[in-house]
Every structure is written in C-alpha cells, then in structure tokens.
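Key idea: predict the complex, not the pieces.
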Amino acid sequence: MKCKQCEKKAVIRLRAHHISLCREDFLAFVLNRVQRTIDKYKIFVPGERVLVAVSGGKDSLALFDILQRLGYAVEGLHIDMGIDGFSQRARNVVEDFLAKRDAPLHLHALGEEAGAGVPEIASQLQRPPCSLCGMMRRYVMNRFAREKGFTALATGHNLDDEGATLLGNVTSWQIGYLARQSPLLPSTHPKLVTKAKPLALLAEREVLAYCLLRGIEFHEEQCPHSKGATSRNHKEVLNLLEYYSPGSKIRFYQEFLKNQRIFSAIESHALQECSVCGSLTTRETCQFCTVLGKLRGSSRAASDRIGASKG
Amino acid sequence: MKCKQCEKKAVIRLRAHHISLCREDFLAFVLNRVQRTIDKYKIFVPGERVLVAVSGGKDSLALFDILQRLGYAVEGLHIDMGIDGFSQRARNVVEDFLAKRDAPLHLHALGEEAGAGVPEIASQLQRPPCSLCGMMRRYVMNRFAREKGFTALATGHNLDDEGATLLGNVTSWQIGYLARQSPLLPSTHPKLVTKAKPLALLAEREVLAYCLLRGIEFHEEQCPHSKGATSRNHKEVLNLLEYYSPGSKIRFYQEFLKNQRIFSAIESHALQECSVCGSLTTRETCQFCTVLGKLRGSSRAASDRIGASKG
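Result:
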C-alpha cells in the first residue's frame, strides 16, 4: 500500500476518499481538510479569538492541535462535570496537554457552582444524566464565552457525531432540527455565541488516526454513563452503511448541507431572557436555572426534614 | 405471551406497535392495516378493477389475498422474466395460487417478446441484470394495465422495501426521488397507470407471518442475481436501527410522508412519447425499446458474422 501523494509506504487507507497516505501526507490531509471546512462554511473570521471546548477526548484535543497549527489564536475551556473519578482523570489529561502549549486553559467546575456533579444531580432530580450533562455543558460554555468576550466557540464534533445526529433527525423527520444542523451555527442574538464544528468533515477514525500519528495523549475512557446512548447506536448504523458503501457517511452529510435550504422555511421558537440569569431561553426560566433551583429546593427540603426529625 | 385483544395465547409479538396477538387477531390486524393504508392515501376508488403484479413471492401473494378478502375486484399479472429455472418455478407457484381463487391470471413472457430472458439480455448488452429487470418489468406492467383498461396497478412493496428506498434516497439526498416516493403514485398522464403499494405500512416480517399463518405457499427462492443488491444492504441497516429502537422503520417512513411536501417544489422531467412504441419517456426512445433495438441489432450483427463466415 503506497501513499498516493509521494509513493512512500502508506500508513492509512481512506476508502471514502479512494486514497492511501503516508504519515506526513495524512497529517497534511487532515489540516487541509479542516482549513477547507473553515473556509467553505466561513467558520472563523481572520484574527478571531477562538475558545475551544476541551473535554480531554481525542476530538477536542485534535481540534485544539489543528487550529493552533493553522495559526488561530485558541484558548481552552474545560468543564469538570463532577463525574466520579472520570472527570478528575479527564482534567489531568487536559492540563498535561495544555501545559505543553502556548495557550491559556480556563477551568470551570460544575460542582463548585451547583454544589453537586452530574450523577448526583441526575439521581436527585430523577433525570437521565446524558441529556442533563449536555444541557449544562452547553449552558456553561456559552455563558463563559460570552462573558469573556469570545465571539466563537469551537467543539470537536466529528463527521460520525454529525452523521449520527443527522440520522436521528432524519429518521424521525425533525424538520426544525434539520434546518439548524450545520458546521457553523452563527450567533442570532448578542447573548448567543457562534458555535463552530471545524472537524465536521473528518470521520472519527481519521481524528483517532491523527491523534495516534501526532502522538497526542488523550483521555481514552468512555464516560461511565454513556452506555446505550442513542448517538452510539446511530453511529453503529452509519458504520454498517459505510461498510457496505464506502463514502456513504460523508455523502450523507455533505449532500444534506447542500440541500438544507429545503428545511429552512420553518417556524423558529421565540427567545426570551431567563428570569433568573438573563440567558436566552424559550421558557420563562432557562433549563440550567430550573435544575439549580430544583436542586436547591430539594436540598432545603431535605435539611428541613432532618431538622424536623431532630427537633 | 397473551394476545392484547382477546387474552388467548399470542403467536406474534409486534415490538413496533407494543402488542402481541393471537393468529386470528393478527390476521385481522393485517387486513385492517391494509384497509387503513388504502383509505388514508386514497389508493383505490370503490369498485375499481385492480391489477396486482404477482411475482410469486410472499409480498405479492399476500397482497392479492388481502385485497380479495377486502372485497376488491383483483386480477393477477405475472411476468416471466426468463431467468433460468427460477422464473419457471415462480410461474408454477403463481399458477397454483391463482387456480384456487376466483380471479383471472394474465401471463406475459418476456422471452416471447424480446427473444431472450433477462440474463441473456444483460450479458449481451453488458448491463447489470437487476436494474434492467426492474425497468423491463415496470414497462410491461404499465403497458399491460393501460392496454387492458386497468386504472390502478398494485405491487407488493412492503415497509422494508419502502424504507430501504427511502434510506437510499435520503443518504444521497435525491430530492427528486424524495418528492415522488409514496404508497400512491397517481397517474399524471393518460398513458401512465396509477401505481399503488397497499402493503407499504406492513413490515416484511409481518407480511411473512401473514403468509405462514394463512397457509399461503409462496416462492421462497431469492433471485440468483439479487445478491449484493443495494436494497438488501439498506434493509440490513434499517433492521439494525429497528433492533436498537423498535418502531424506527415505521416512524421513519410515516413521518417522511407527513413532511414530504417539503420536497415537492422540484423540477419535473418533461415527458414525451417514445418514437418506437409511443409510451411515455424522458428520452426520444424509451429504455425498453432501446434495449430491444440493441438486442436485435446485436443478433443481426451476429447472424451477419455467421453468414459472412459461412459464405
């Protein structure tokens, strides 16, 4: 197997692109692909300060590495979601990764703000932890970026993530979601930061290979709560499609983006400011503040019960 | 496992519908579902003569049986595609099935018209047999129905067939095809017969169970040329989705139908009459006549070569 670019020994075969590449040309391919995604979808304005959400997983660390190499002024935001030992190990990986790079790392611990990590909050409020975790992370990321004057927040969503979301939206024909899914979600309000997914055209396998070949040490552990998540199932379904017909994943996503205007003639939800924190929401009180409020209410009720039984 | 309707012992569990049913109630469920499909999509006009395309497989025989039980005046059309022993065995099954029913069977042999069956035509013209077979069957069915004064042609496409087609159209975002896929394709021209798929909301597994429980002897053989067909792969992909989330298939298809108007704002191809047979086509000569023409040309050239070598 020879590299298509230089005829040296190839290290990876990309069936979806009908090419095999050596290490150097593969690393260049990845950088080139991200730059093309940024240019095509006008993801960043030249000179823009970019906040990268770094969980410690392969995708976010690869994204940070690639954006830095492409010359963007990046800073990292890591949110400690308070998941048992998992979060502590993720945080260590992120700190080690950023320590070697000339870029600031911002840390936010959910536990300090909410008084509990995601698993306790989920069990206290009897809600599934994954959707709760996603909602709270998005909230904190947007608030942090806005308060610190960042105009763009970049996340490491890769083609498999985007494809799985698209498959979910398509199989239940969620027209509203279909109208909005994109590598770039531009800000539609001063309180909403632009969200960018510069890895959206790179397959998960390509991002993984990038980390391995670049020597990036990432947090390999799966979150203990993610087992059985719908997105995982959808990824498997897409992998079967890709197995039968290489290139299906990228075609599915790119042809969707080309035709997306079809879905855009939809009603948008009216946004208002949360009565507690002032962030944008479709309700009177945003979900984040609702969760914190319930949490405080239930711990107050618990301490009242303890007080009553003591008294 | 008890029947949801009558508490007798259930014979089948329908996870997508959250029910288990006994034999009698399952057979009634199937009839009811087909009648609801016919009503919902206004598939047949009361008293309409319906031509059912009967290949001999489970779907077409179940369709014939169900439509007859629902009181429709059905007649069968079987096209012998000239595939080695496969077609002969299919024809025997269809003749046995129709002999027991008070309904006419029309037979058409492609070999008599074209001078060869699908495999020879495919190899002579170096074309893939499956698309050729589909094109020629559709042509003969439409022509036959039109010439014999039928206003509707019913085929046994089930939910898995429709889902696989939809998945193919969605993964490559074929907007034109998405605009047209439906349990009912109304006639848009006097030369085009209305096409109906009354089993479109019944899963393949449900149709199979119907045949087994009703004692319908169908042609079980897979066509020797269908191996590796894209539709089979798409069915497997959908089955994986269904396994993870029961009800996915029917939701995918029904929600699509609800939202299909989104795709309808598309260009339609201009239709003209074929210069040879007068049927409708987007080209000067329709595909069927093009194939027959090439076939005759190549056999004439072959006999010329034989004549020349003899002379």
